[in-house]
Amino acid sequence: xxxxxxxxxxxxxxxxxxxxxxxxxxxxxxxxxxxxxxxxxxxxxxxxxxxxxxxxxxxxxxxxxxxxxxxxxxxxxxxxxxxxxxxxxxxxxxxxxxxxxxxxxxxxxxxxxxxxxxxxxxxxxxxxxxxxxxxxxxxxxxxxxxxxxxxxxxxxxxxxxxxxxxxxxxxxxxxxxxxxxxxxxxxxxxxxxxxxxxxxxxxx
Length: 204
Fold this sequence. Notes:
By secondary structure, the chain is an all-alpha fold. The chain has a domain at about 5-115 and about 170-195. It contains 7 helices and 2 strands; from the N terminus they run H-E-E-H-H-H-H-H-H. The chain has helices at about 5-10, 25-40, 45-70, 80-110, 115-135, 140-175, 190-204; strands at about 15-20, 20. A two-stranded antiparallel sheet has the order 1-2. Strand 1 (about 15-20) and strand 2 (about 20) form a beta hairpin. Helix 2 (about 25-40) runs antiparallel to helix 3 and helix 3 packs antiparallel against helix 4 (about 80-110). It is globular, with a radius of gyration of 19 Å.
């Protein structure tokens, strides 16, 4: 269904710096996410919007990669790196909005209210985390609050990342059941609900 690709692509978005370059290139991650959303876009409008956001973020990822490579050869003005970081942060916030609301929608439709609630919780944490990160990017705030809040915000980011990975993994395991080719085929809750919806539409 696409959640396996989404999980792999999302893991590729994790920042692993090595000599100033992110080992896991966001551009590659968003290409996998784009492939995932092409499979999921038919199920709700949020996944369609997430696919469109992924297209934009592929461009942002390419821009980020170019600036990282250029920084090895020339000293880029601070405004360039700051602008790139802000554009990337804004795009990531929009991406998470559509991804998490898409998961919430499909979880509700497949009668998995527990995971729909977790998607809503993760979105609330996303907003808190990004507000904190953006606030610390302001020089005046960073100089005053940085020594006290940098570590808590970093820990919050790790928790937020882990919760999102766990959520996507459970969508993969509970909704689409990909990778069970060796087991007797059992329709997932989503397939049953989707087939019932198709039958109702045909009757109309």
